[in-house]
Amino acid sequence: MKEAKTLYVVIPCYKEEEVLPETARRMKIKMKSLMDSGMISPESRVMFVNDGSKDRTWDIIAQLHEEDKLFSGVNLSRNRGHQNALLAGLMTAVNYADMVVSMDADLQDDINAIDAMVEQYHNGYDVVYGVRSSRKTDTFFKRFTAESFYRLMKALGVDIIFNHADYRLMSRRALEGLADFKEVNLFLRGIVPQIGYPWTTVEYARAERFAGESKYPLKKMLSFAFDGITSFSIKPMRLILHLGAIVFAISILMLLWALAAYISGSSVAGWTSLMGSIWLIGGIQLLSLGVIGEYVGKVYGETKARPRFIIQQVLNKPE
């Protein structure tokens, strides 16, 4: 009989005091079930990562750890954002685990899908993506914008898994490959497919948030989407080049038309067309500068190479 492998479930937390007790309760049942069936070893753990929360999140994590060694914790020195907190947990868990599942604390990800993920790991897959089977629980606006984002990313040439967020299983060697990606601007949904290794998907139904408020309002979602696009595709800059060529060609035609009108003596001062042209060209220039500035800003951030996270404390009790 094969030796059971160690599983760590990494859960980034930011102001999750309302949902953490229930998350811990459900995860304990699930982990014990997997251990009893022999799918994972007794050394497996649930690792909560506190992303600089100002509420009682870390106190609850510390209490859970004190009461049960199944739960471990990572406390970041300050708030670094979801992606950095998740990476901190992954890079900590890789030192103890054979495989790591990442998921959110809000219980929207179906924890029962972990069974299928572990099974696929034993079938030889290094990365198992949790993919939503449907978006029936989303509003029309959320469903439309989310699906449009994935299609846009694909159109821009980004290798991304449709309807996949950050619910996935990764083997130790896949995580070691992830550690070689040093970029500061993290978009793990785009980075993980770059690692390679055998991968597959597991479908699950996403539930409503158990308690608390979403940490991704519309403004943050749009910012996250734009970060993903500019981190993995230069097509927006190429579109600017093409747009500039089109505007230049139109301007040449307009110049020829103006010269022809002047020579024929039928030129008339057109205030509306002049103002329209100025505003159009000015808007295109500002938009182009903004897109280029976003890329320059990302280069600036990468060249500084500041740490993506700083861990203040780790609570873990391996066997």
List the helices and strands and how they pair.
Blueprint: E1 7-13, H1 20-36, E2 45-50, H2 57-67, E3 71-76, H3 82-93, E4 99-102, H4 113-122, E5 127-132, H5 140-155, E6 164-171, H6 172-178, H7 188-195, E7 199-204, H8 218-232, H9 235-264, H10 271-304, E8 311-315
Parallel strand pairs: 1-2, 1-4, 2-3, 5-7
Antiparallel strand pairs: 3-8, 4-6, 5-6
Explain this structure.
With 319 residues, the protein is an alpha/beta fold. The protein folds into 2 domains: 7-217 and 308-315, Spore Coat Polysaccharide Biosynthesis Protein SpsA, Chain A (Alpha-Beta Complex); 235-304. The chain is 50% helix and 15% strand. The chain has 10 helices and 8 strands. It has helices at 20-36, 57-67, 82-93, 113-122, 140-155, 172-178, 188-195, 218-232, 235-264, 271-304; strands spanning 7-13, 45-50, 71-76, 99-102, 127-132, 164-171, 199-204, 311-315. The protein has an 8-stranded mixed beta sheet, with helices on both faces. The model has no long low-confidence stretch (mean pLDDT 81).
**Tally of contiguous helical segments:** 10
Identify the strand order in the major beta sheet: 7-5-6-4-1-2-3-8
Number of strands: 8
Tell me the span between the first and last alpha carbons. Answer: 21 Å
Quickly count the domains: 2
CATH superfamily of the largest domain: Spore Coat Polysaccharide Biosynthesis Protein SpsA, Chain A
- Sheet of most strands: 8 strands, mixed
Any guess at the CATH architecture of the largest domain? Alpha-Beta Complex
- Give the ordered list of helices and strands: EHEHEHEHEHEHHEHHHE
List low-confidence stretches. none
Structural class: alpha/beta
Q: Percent of residues in beta strands?
A: 15-25%
Give the helix level as a range of percent: 40-55%
CATH top level of the largest domain?
Answer: Alpha Beta
